[in-house]
Structures are given as C-alpha cells and as structure tokens.
TrEMBL record:
Residues 44-112 form the Protein kinase domain. It comes from Lophium mytilinum. Coiled coil: none annotated. It comes from the Eukaryota. Transmembrane segments: none annotated. PROSITE patterns: PROTEIN_KINASE_DOM (PS50011). InterPro entries: Kinase-like_dom_sf, Prot_kinase_dom, Ser-Thr/Tyr_kinase_cat_dom. This is Protein kinase domain-containing protein.
Length: 112
C-alpha cells in the first residue's frame, strides 16, 4: 500500500462506529490563545442510504444534539475488500473525501 498523503493523515478523526450512530472525538482551540484545547464529541445517527458505488455506500446522518436546528451530512462508508491477491489502493478515494470535507468546499451542509 502506498504511503498516506498529508491531507488524508491530517483529516483523520478519532471515530467509533455502532449500528445506530457514529461518534467523533476532536479538539478545538480555546477562546483565548492561553486556553488549552477543549475536547468535543459529536454523535451522528445513521439514516437512509443515499446511494452506492464501486467503493461503498453513502448514508445520510443527523447530528444527535439538543439544539433546535438539525444538522445533516452525507457519509461514505468504504468497503475494505481485497480483489484476488492484490490489495486495493484507497488513497485517491480517501484524498477526494478529505478534499470535499473541507469547510471551504462543504456546501452541502444543511441546517433545518
């Protein structure tokens, strides 16, 4: 397997999966430069399948929070399979996901 690009490595989230939700743990900067980073958790509930392709399935997920506004996102679940004796190179697929997950590109975020 080729080495992972900096973009993919830097975009990595500590994630836990269950059959009903996805949980992310990440750290955000404090309000002042002297304040430590603050640990945040998000839980996203899996909804319906939006479609599938050669690498996997795209799911609709809803943020499980006590806010009045609901947030949704599309999440791609990549199947990790091996074809014959060759390992599949996922680096281009992961790099595309990382690029389109960036805030500057993330135009599909919907708040209801």
């Amino acid at each position: 397997m080729p080495p992972v690009s900096d973009l993919v490595r830097d975009s990595r989230l500590k994630t836990r999966f269950s059959s009903k939700y996805t949980q992310h743990v990440f750290y955000v900067s404090g309000e002042t430069p002297r304040q430590r980073k603050v640990r945040r958790e998000e839980r996203w509930e899996r909804g319906e399948s939006l479609g599938s392709g050669s690498f996997g399935t795209v799911w609709l997920e809803k943020l499980m929070a006590e806010q009045t506004n609901s947030k949704f996102r599309a999440v791609k679940e990549i199947r990790k399979v091996q074809r014959g004796s060759k390992a599949i190179d996922y680096s281009r697929e992961l790099e595309a996901i990382a690029k389109f997950s960036h805030e500057k590109v993330n135009i599909l975020t919907t708040t209801i």
